[in-house]
Amino acid sequence: MVAGVEFRNTAGVLGNHPFPARLNDCVSALKWVYENKKGLGISKIIVSGESGGGNLSIATALKAKQDGILNFIDGVYAQCPYISNLYGKGNTELKSLTENDTYFLRGDDLGLLASLYDGINSTNPIAWPYHADNAMLEGIPPHVITVNELDPLRDEGLAYSEKLKKVGISVSTKIIKGTVHEAENFFL
């Protein structure tokens, strides 16, 4: 069973709704699915998304912990998560931001989209999970994180995976070799 969330975004048919609108919509959907598990015939809830949706899947788990409903989530599957908000800022710790700039995605475009979502210099970990500290990460559900080798976002997904491992969270990480951002969804 798959439940898709039509969340409000910073632009589109639902109007202009910056952070935290889309995250609140995902948390509301999580609550609805959890409350209707029996009727839906499901026993576990895995929150999943790709790119910005990868951000939302991870952020939904962090927000669920903050809201005391972490038990609603059994796992997180984040594909090529867009989670750092360090785009176009000359960041040296996430080398893929420069190594893979313009391979399908451009760093300056990522920065523009990030500024529309939550401001230019935000490091709010609920908006940008890369910045979550150990206390925020402790006790969150198991994760699967996939990244694309030639994606500017590769290293933020890998770094987040390492943060999870350091606090004892079960995480499986896979690099999809020779692929650009979301290639397994766009090009297959």
Descriptive overview:
With 188 residues, the chain is α/β, with parallel strands linked by helices. It has a single domain, classed as Rossmann fold (3-Layer(aba) Sandwich). It is built from eight helices and four strands. The chain has a four-stranded parallel beta sheet with strand order 1-2-3-4, covered by helices on one side. The radius of gyration is 16 Å and the shape is globular. It starts with 20 loop residues before the first helix and ends with a helix. The model has no long low-confidence stretch (mean pLDDT 94).
Task: Kindly list the characteristics that best describe this protein.
single chain; 188 residues; alpha/beta; Rossmann fold; 4-stranded parallel sheet; 38% helix; 12% strand
CATH class identity: Alpha Beta
Tell me what portion of residues adopts beta-strand conformation. 5-15%
Q: What is the CATH topology classification name?
A: Rossmann fold
CATH superfamily: Alpha/Beta hydrolase fold, catalytic domain
User: Number of DSSP strands?
Assistant: 4
Summed up, the helix count is: 8
Biggest β-sheet strands, sense, barrel: 4 strands, parallel
Mean pLDDT across every amino acid position: 94
Give me the side-by-side strand order of the main sheet: 1-2-3-4
The computed structural class is: alpha/beta
Low-confidence stretches: none
Taken together, the total number of domains comes to 1
Radius of gyration from CA coordinates: 16 Å
Report helical residue fraction.
Answer: 25-40%
Structure summarized in a few sentences:
This protein is α/β, with parallel strands linked by helices and 188 residues long. Helix content is 38%, strand content 12%. The protein starts with 20 loop residues before the first helix and ends with a helix.
